[in-house]
Amino acid sequence: MTANVTPARPMREIDAASFDDAMLASAEPVVLRGLVRHWPMVAAALAGNADAYLRGFYRDATVNAMLGAPGIDGRFFYNDDLSGFNFAPVRVRLDTVLDELKKHAASAPAPAIYVGSTTVDTCLPGFRAHNDIDLGARDALASIWIGNRTRIAAHYDVPDNIACVAAGRRRFTLFPPGQLRNLYVGPLDFTPAGQAISLVDVRQPDLQRFPRYAEALANAQVADLGPGDAIFIPSMWWHHVEALDAFNVLVNYWWRCVPDYMDTPTNAMLMALMTIRELPPEQRAAWQEQFRHYVFEAGADTAAHIAPAARRVLAPLDDDATRTLRAQLLKKINR
């Protein structure tokens, strides 16, 4: 049984004039209409010259690309038994990718061609001097995505990010973090592009195989973006991204508002899978209480009974304390 694929709620929208620093702290996604409409890249795309504009910055760079047969219908995913993938990863010159996109622009169906998350300054030096956004004090990493009609399965990212549509149209379908259980996520340690993904085909969800997805869909938000539009995606929100045209360019800005010494929480979860998940129920409950006390509900009184000079890892961490703790953990893991 295939579900009605129309999510329940439209996404909140603001115009470029309303974009401010407070919006970047939102816990909900926000569509930013016209945020980068002033970019020369967007003007070139609207005039049909996006390919030529990108080539103007190209300096013999190679990129990581994904190539799929026409039969995958643009959906980069696993093979049937999840032992591999339905596409081939390649390392190739960016101008070769642009040539292939132009060659297959009118093909129906076309092979799926996708350059994912490539640092803008590396592959297109000078591009950001003319096409950029001001994120204040945030030290954001700018990445570019180039491809044809492709679909990226629902996944989350640890950083906050703003995705700017520079050419083509894209449809974003977002799910709150609390919908994890209803998204039927695949393997955590064997993924198409580094992040765990939902196994549900958002365009044609199979509710016999994935019945709880109906609940996820009821809580989903969707937005269609054109050249010049952008979307703010908060940390940990699941997002499915579909490129709707034969040539699409997206520029992402990623950042985390945490100290540089903080590692990704994903590593802590993987360690917990290795050390806690298989314990007897009573012991898991005991460790749940440990995490509640020391991590999720930690406060000023957690270590108040210990003299400040003796609190060690229970004191606020800094670069030096984190470096020491990381070294201790690595020594224990590699015992």
Automatic annotation (TrEMBL):
> What Pfam families does this protein's entry cite?
Cupin_8
Q: Which domain of life is it from?
A: Bacteria
The record places domain JmjC at: 113-270
Recorded hits in PANTHER family, A to Z, give:
HYPOXIA-INDUCIBLE FACTOR 1 ALPHA INHIBITOR-RELATED, HYPOXIA-INDUCIBLE FACTOR 1-ALPHA INHIBITOR
Q: What is this protein called?
A: Cupin
